[in-house]
Amino acid sequence: NRGNKDTTIVVDDQAPSTSAGAGSIHKTQETSRRPPTAIQSIVNVIKSTWLNVLLVFIPLGILSHFLNWGDVSTFTLNFFAIIPLAKLLGTVTEDIALRVGETIGGLLNATFGNAVELIVSILAIRQNLIRVVQASMLGSIISNLLLVLGMCFVAGGYYKKEQNFNQTAAQTCASLMTLACIALIIPAALHAAVSTDKGKTEEEILDLSRGTAVVLLIVYGFYLFFQLRTHKFLYNELPEGAECAEGAEGENAAPEEPEEPQLSLSISIASLAVITVAVAICAEFLVGSIEGIVETSGLSSTFVGLILLPIVGNAAEHVTAVSVAIKDKMDLAIGVAAGSSMQIALFVTPFLVILGWIINKPMTLFFELFETIVLFISVLITNYLIQDGKSNWLEGVMLLATYTIIALAFYFYPDDT
Amino acid sequence: MNDQTPLLKNNNRHTYNNSHNIIDKNDDAEPTTYSSVKTLLCCSNFNYLLIFIPFGILSKLCGWSDTWVFCLNFMGIIPLANLLGFATEDISLRFGDTIGSLLNATFGNAVELIISVVALNNGLIRVVQASILGSVLSNLLLVQGVCFFLGGIRYSEQFFNVTAAQTSASLLALAMISLLIPAAFYTSVDSEKAIDGILNLSHGTAIVLLIIYIMYLVFQLKTHSHLYESETIDGDDSPQMTIYVSIGSLLIISIIVSITADYLVGSIEGLVESWNISRTFVGIVLIPIVGNAAEHVSSVTFALKNKMDLCIGVAIGSSMQIALGMTPLLVILGWFLGEPLTLFFESFETCVLVVAILIVNYLIADGKSNWLEGAMLLAAYVIIAMAFFFYPDDGQVSFIPKPV
């Protein structure tokens, strides 16, 4: 889920590459007259954010796996290695998107933006860590809605008494999240009501999940169509291309000069490939060490999946959203956070279910009843707080409190199977 | 209440006629009974299909095969749906969208009420509950979804009265609460003692809901009718039928529709027996769709004509009527008849209703609709229908949520 500027791409959750974002490499036309050389652009990319300091963890993480430093170190080192890679992926995707235009850019965004989550999840499914994957999907949604948004409201609210954002787009987000919730609640309710014949139930839940996944993907497709075609006007005044929010016409509508891609096409495609491969490697080691971690550290696999893994996938957007909120661009922040949740709920999760169908692993949309309730509550409170189009630091505190309570609950949640 | 003669034809929607149709229009004379009936019968080419109706009735009474019964009655329902819409529109041109949709919904539900009373009398409690659930779900999600979707394809954004929408949303939430509380009651209390408590709770709640519904009618038609006035003024349409013909025809058409629908439903049950589909699915999904097809089609035509207030009035208004009017009425009737009909639906069904009402409320609260919102409602309906498809047949199912 990487976003872009005037190309209203699927989910904008990274500060579009004007001066707005943390880690923007793009300068406006005025300040960069000459296209930079290859070396220069790569250097720019690397210098663009402090997160890239963490890049040193990549070699460490690889070493840790091959030198058998133990599961805990492997997990931790690779954990920190993936974070800057995710950010880089976003930056490069943005760059390419500037060249290829909105629609393709949007699709690129959807794929590569979620690359980390997708890769980690696919690897985990192949190793039959279904519960971990489900937990990480849920955790991603919850952490975006509560943790990220909460921090945004708090950080922004520290500087400004009350921040405004567009209600209409916030409400569309709310409705779509509710739909996603429904798609997850129904299988759980079905399971809870029909608890006699175990074998048959699993079979039916699986079928229901697969059917639902198809429906959700179709809705996601419709949503893209809605946003990029038929109702573009609702999203078009965005100076910064936030997906879930219309920009406030006032302050943000300063005429932006068109940006130029910083990297040549070949370099950007090449770096995309390189970064993806690096992510895959680190993710492989990360996922491989999960079982070991669960045994030694005593953390339940649910906790690992629900709280730890999402941080890996979302750290980049997290940083972006908060920095943007501080700059009083709350529309953007919400676009990043809520849009990211929506993508996970409507795209990544159904996609994984279908993938599981293909490779014959029983990935379902059936979450434990407790998790479903937790999801429902998170969506509920978030919807309430964003519906009025205003935010303040106390609302942020409320969201953070909810997240903490949920995290605590999962810490004490007994691990079954 | 305005009984001044409007200068422009299109202002007569707020004029209430008491007994005499003395509205002077600029050119056309007030329609006579004869011309009204003629207009009705000639209003569309679909009316040729009306000949299927006597055949449909015949097929059932003479015991022809289920397939024949289904096909003939299906063909017969099409022109009826059309006429239903026509009559409703005519009434609404005269009295306003509020009354138009109210009458449509009432006549449509009145017959369902009668059928439900018969079922109740025979002790078929689950059948009654299933039909209530199915009707509410299909009106809220399927019909509304198709309306928003198709209407949204034609018109980029459609508007409807916000006050009406929000009032409906709140009332639906109230209905939701009336179902949630017994369900929560049931899961917390020891099951033997729960049944009695729930029955009494249901009786009390039914009385409360009925009172609220009557108050809502007063609100809508009397004290705050000005809030419900349509914001968009129609062109030069004026009613083409006299009051008596329009209301009378609505009534008669509704009756014929329900007879035809009844035969349709009966034949479906026969056809489906052989296919071995879950009876829960048939009862909650298939039958309400088939049974309410006529009203559904007329709602959609309203949406396509951008008469969103009428469309929502029929679809959501019908659900509200069932949830707040018909259900409590049935519960109270059950009280008198000694049949234990309660407001406690199976937990899964309660959950489904809650979720449906939730998403509908979110989507109508802003008074605008577009095709994506329609798609969302349809998606929700498909997911729920799928769940019922996989829901095992009644009898072997335990309805108590597994303690986690």
Present the secondary structure layout.
The complex is a heterodimer of chains A (417) and B (404).
Chain A: H1 38-47, H2 57-66, H3 71-100, H4 102-113, H5 115-126, H6 130-159, E1 163-164, H7 167-193, H8 198-230, H9 232-235, H10 265-288, H11 290-297, H12 301-326, H13 330-358, H14 369-386, E2 390-391, H15 393-411
Antiparallel strand pairs in A: 1-2
Helix pairs in contact in A: 2-3, 2-10, 3-4, 3-10, 3-12, 5-6, 5-10, 5-13, 6-12, 6-13, 6-14, 6-15, 7-8, 7-13, 7-14, 8-13, 12-13, 14-15
Chain B: H1 33-42, H2 52-61, H3 66-95, H4 97-121, H5 125-154, E1 158-159, H6 162-188, H7 191-223, H8 243-273, H9 279-291, H10 293-304, H11 308-337, H12 347-364, E2 368-369, H13 371-390
Antiparallel strand pairs in B: 1-2
Helix pairs in contact in B: 2-3, 3-4, 3-8, 3-10, 4-5, 4-8, 4-11, 5-9, 5-10, 5-11, 5-12, 5-13, 6-7, 6-11, 6-12, 7-11, 8-9, 9-13, 10-11, 12-13
Spatial gap, N to C terminus of chain A: 32 Å
Helix and strand element order of chain A: HHHHHHEHHHHHHHHEH
Multimerization state: heterodimer
- Show unreliable segments of chain A: 1-24, 27-32, 237-257
| β-sheet strand percentage of chain A | under 5%
Number of helices of chain A: 15
Radius of gyration of chain A, Cα only, in angstroms? 21 Å
Strand order of the largest sheet of chain A: 1-2
Uncertain runs of chain B are: 9-28, 395-404
| Protein structure class of chain A | mainly alpha
Percent helix among the residues of chain B?
over 70%
